[in-house]
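Hi U.,

Before I forget, here's the chain from the pilot set. I'm dumping it here mostly so it's searchable later in email.
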Amino acid sequence: MTPINSEKNRGSGTLRHHHEYAQFVRWIATPEPYREIKKQEDFAKSIGVHQDTLTDWKKREGFWSAVKEEISQFGRERTPNAILALYKTILAKGTAPEVKLWLQYVEGWKEEQVQTQKFDEKPTPGEVATWERIKRKHARKNRRNGEHSNPL
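Structure:
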């Protein structure tokens, strides 16, 4: 019996069934409703390996990275259909999230990022100078209007 923390179970051993491994990566990456073979046990039989081999492959270094790459490829090939569905949703509903997503994807639009300053941080000399200019400007405006309160 192989111990749980053995080299074999960590997936650093030599891979003997390269073609079958690649098939398994593609099978795992395929969304379940699109799989012709639904159960892992049945898939193992179809490629001629034991189901424990598939379990070991899932533990191999790089397995989930390969699955992620297959998922990305699956998605890239379907992006035009997703864009069409998004477009149809915008035409039908026209809600802000769909329009925003369209602008981000198609137009490369990005929301303005606002930087905030933590209260425990001291302002930079430039920030202090800007703040002082704003205060002076409002003070002059208030004096002209006969007001004495500081709006800031």
